[in-house]
Amino acid sequence: MAAAAGLALAVAGAVGVAAPAQAAVPDAHGFVLWNGAAVVPSGTWPPATAVSAGGGGFYKVVFPGQAAKGGVVHVTAINERPIWCQALKWGFSGVDEIAYIGCYRPGGVGIDTPFTAVFTSSSPPDGIPGHYGYVHADPSGGIVSEYNSALGSGNVVSATGGPGEYLVRFPALGSPGPFDGSLQLTAVNSSVGAHCEVAKWASNPASVDVLVFCFDGAGAKLKTGFNLTYQLERSLFGSAYPPKYFGYVWNAPPPPVPNLGPPPTNFNSIFGTGVNAVASAGPGMTLVAFRGLAQRPDTVQVTAMGHTGEFCNLLTFWGYNGTTVLVRNVTCFTAAGARVDTGSFTSYNSEF
């Protein structure tokens, strides 16, 4: 309890103490795989990334040498039980980036669990093929941090429809549509358990538009901060080639189960569009296979799509069959913690 309290106080305090230098997109990034007791090297970069457990589902992650202003954090719980993780706070300290993470079960009670987390921050100029953008929004829909690969900034977040409902627009990242690319979404809240899902989305030549719904631990709509990232033929870090090995796939909301989205939502950096596989592994569970992408260190993130407080995690750590990455399985739950067939986005990214 003392460790958890100390970590909570650290979350409440400031972390930025020195201005980091600008670099090519991304300015900085890192990812980590925590198995519940130790950092797993095959799912972690930089190699010296460290995790401190504060108890009660609270964690401090230090990404060495990755200090950057703003940026976003995405985190996915790894557990057979209905558990989600969220970002509490992050910022730079000297040359390092420090992220605080909280993990919860339905009801909003903190709980320890393995997880996988990603931090990335970008600033112009860009000049990389494909489209990429992110927003860190506050509970009122104000933009705390953002990036747009076409404009540098200019994304729009509007609180709409009621508490916990937000419309996000990435202008100038348009594509033929109606669906192109992929999304990752993570709640940001340092006070209570919160999770967010994609309720609706679309792409068109002018923009990418995403309707975000956020909920508290009991499944009620909640005004909360969140991080949303859009990728189209780019890695979740914002870069492409390198890394050479990355991919994403959208399991559109059922029925049927599974229900692959159109080819532009199913991308593989080695083989192109439409080649990643999705199969039902039982109620609420989906096996995802990324052919030809296995290259460690690597990371996986998942996000739910639905309307009533669904959330998704990973049943266990991803594995490999030759050069195929096996995500076994993306597991989705109702707000109350029952397994449910719902939509999901899965993003695989290697460092190389």
What is the approximate shape? globular
Mean pLDDT: 94
Taking all Cα atoms into account, the compactness measure Rg is: 18 Å
Number of helices: 1
Q: Main sheet?
A: 5 strands, antiparallel
The tally of beta strands, per DSSP, is 26
Which ranges are low-confidence, i.e. pLDDT below 50, for 5 or more consecutive residues?
Answer: 1-5
Q: How many angstroms does the end-to-end distance come to? A: 40 Å
Helix content, binned percent? under 10%
What structural category arises from helix and sheet content?
A: mainly beta
What share of residues are in beta strands?
A: over 45%
Order of helices and strands: HEEEEEEEEEEEEEEEEEEEEEEEEEE
- How many structurally independent domains? 3
Question: Top keywords for this entry?
Answer:
5-stranded antiparallel β-sheet; disordered N terminus; single chain; mainly beta; 352 residues; 3 domains
How would you sum up this structure, described in words?
The protein is mainly beta. It folds into three domains: 27-121, no CATH class; 131-232; 246-350, no CATH class. It contains one helix and 26 strands. The protein has one helix at residues 2-12, and strands at 28-34, 50-55, 58-63, 72-77, 84-93, 96-105, 109-110, 115-121, 131-137, 143-148, 156-159, 165-171, 182-188, 194-203, 207-216, 225-232, 246-251, 266-268, 272-273, 277-282, 285-290, 298-305, 311-314, 319-321, 324-333, 343-350. Strands 2, 3, 5, 6 and 7 form a five-stranded antiparallel β-sheet that branches. A five-stranded antiparallel β-sheet has the order 19-18-17-26-22, with no helix packed on it. Strands 20, 21, 23, 24 and 25 form a five-stranded antiparallel β-sheet that branches. A hairpin with a 2-residue loop joins strand 5 (84-93) and strand 6. The protein is globular and about 45 Å long. It starts with a helix and ends with a strand. Mean pLDDT is 94; it is low at 1-5.
